[in-house]
Structures are given as C-alpha cells and as structure tokens.
Write a structure and sequence with these properties.
This protein has about 280 residues and is of the alpha/beta class. The chain has 12 helices and 8 strands. Strand 4 and strand 5 form a beta hairpin. It is globular and about 50 Å long. The structure holds iron/sulfur cluster.
C-alpha cells in the first residue's frame, strides 16, 4: 500500500511568520522526518505570495534534503481574509510566470530529486525525470466535450472538511453548484461516494462548462484549452462556472512555449552536467 501524507510549508523562512506560531517550521520538519522514517511518502504544498516567492529555491532544496517526494506550488487563492486584507501581497500572473521561469534553471542546476508542479503550468519529476507543461490539450481531432469530465482529478480524490462535509478538493469546499452538501455525520461515507453532491459533480462535463461561458465558446484558444480548474473559476468570479483567469492568462500569453523553452535549455545543461556531452 502506498500512503501519501500531504503537508503545508509556506516557505523555509516565511512559514512561521504566516502561521504565527514559533517553532512551526521545526515541528513540520519533525513530522516530515517521522513519516518518511516509517517508510511513507510525503508531498508538500507551498503557497506563493510576494513575501515568500524569493524563498522558492531554498524551500525546494530544503524539502529535497528531507526526502519529500513532491511539492505542489501555487499562488494564494484570493478569498476570505486574504482577499479582504492582504490582496496587495498576491503575485500578479506575470510575476507568477517570472518566478517560475527564473526558478527552472536553479532546479536542474541543483540536481533536485523532488518533483514539483507549479500552478498546473509546469510539472518536473525530478532532476532525472520528465517535465511537461500543463493546461494544454489538443481537441482538434476530438471535439465532443460532453465526454470530457469537468474536473479530471475529482474522481480520484475527495476532501472531508472539519464538519465532515465531502467535496472534491480543499478549494472546492463550500462551492458545490447545487449545494447538496452532505455530512458523514448524517450519512455513511460509503453512501456519499455513491450518491451525493460529490457524485453529481463528477458527472459534469466540459460541454456543461462551455454552454455557460460565451467567452470560451468564441475563443480562438478553445481547442487547445482544458478550461482550467472549476474552483479557481469560482474564486475569480464568485460563482460556479466562472472562468479560471489564471488558465486563461496561460493560454493567451503562450506561457507553455516560454516555459518549455527555458526547461529545454536547463535540461540540456543538465545533460552536460552529467557528462553525456563532455
Ligand atoms: S483561453 Fe480562456 S476564454 Fe479561451 S477557452 Fe480557455 S478559458 Fe476560455
């Protein structure tokens, strides 16, 4: 059995500041070491903003040294208290792209073993592994969007919040379209996995999404676009079926080309480092 623990580390130096608890980073480190010591895998989440973006390299290197398997790096979701008081500390989409473009060469130069995914824009499976750019698909040969699930990961994962409510993931918590939310305190989890808002959500398709978004229906990038993340679309527009603007930025600014160009160059340097060409 493969047990994966997921932990949040908001930056090697910044973690304690945002948590407001002295010793929080050391406590997280101890927990990571303990779990890995028991033979389990650990993945970490790092949420980027203007205060910790400069710590990306040090944080990844630190988690790599601890033996963390994978890091999910994303920008802050602008909602709740962050939206109210801290929006000025969010990175713009251009800044998010810049942080990634500057980081990729360091990743390969540092021979990091830990894989990472950045915003769904770029995935690298370690120094020796593959890399790819996300959010790009090719629907040209196959344009039947009614057969494509709205969210490709929701069938594989679910999230239980502190009140026992089931939803597809943490960002989707409290944002389901029909609000048919059900609690494990009212019905067994087994039932929620067979008939609930979660199962209804899993039936939604890209066609359902397209029917509700005129902007996407008439967009020139429609056939290369995976329409991003439903939770991100909700956060950007304060409603279900909203457009994921970060995904839109990625498509319209041809970010995949820019990212892969940097990754290819860094990867070539990697091969030189390993002595294949020299
Ligand atoms: S690029 Fe933006 S507007 Fe165009 S299809 Fe994708 S999400 Fe819709």
């Amino acid at each position: 059995m493969h047990i994966l623990f997921s932990m949040s580390l908001a930056g090697i130096y910044y973690h304690e500041k945002i948590r407001g608890v002295p010793g929080a980073r050391i406590a997280a480190e101890k927990a990571i070491k303990k779990v890995i010591g028991h033979g389990c895998s650990v993945s970490c989440n790092m949420c980027l903003n203007k205060n910790n973006a400069g710590e990306l390299m040090d944080t990844v290197n630190y988690l790599d040294a601890l033996g963390v398997e994978f890091i999910h790096i994303s920008s802050v979701n602008e909602e709740g208290l962050w939206k109210e008081f801290n929006k000025k500390n969010s990175l713009t989409y251009d800044e998010q792209l810049q942080v990634l473009l500057e980081y990729i060469p360091h990743y390969y130069k540092g021979r990091v073993k830990t894989g990472f995914v950045y915003q769904g824009w770029f995935t690298a499976k370690g120094f020796d592994g593959e890399y790819s750019s996300g959010h790009l698909v090719n629907h040209e040969q196959e344009t039947d969007f009614s057969q494509k699930p709205l969210c490709s990961s929701s069938k594989l994962k679910a999230f239980l919040n502190a009140e026992g409510m089931l939803s597809p993931c943490i960002p989707m918590d409290g944002k389901m379209p029909d609000n048919k939310y059900m609690s494990i305190y009212e019905r067994p989890l087994k039932e929620l996995f067979t008939d609930s808002a979660w199962t209804e959500f899993n039936k939604l398709t890209k066609e359902d999404y397209l029917q509700r978004n005129v902007r996407c229906r008439s967009c020139e990038y429609r056939l290369q676009c995976d329409f991003g993340c439903p939770a991100a679309g909700f956060i950007d527009h304060d409603r279900f079926w909203g457009i994921d603007e970060k995904n839109c930025f990625f498509l319209k600014n041809r970010c995949a080309e820019k990212i892969l160009k940097v990754a290819r160059y860094a990867s070539l340097q990697k091969i030189k480092q390993k002595g294949v060409y020299v």
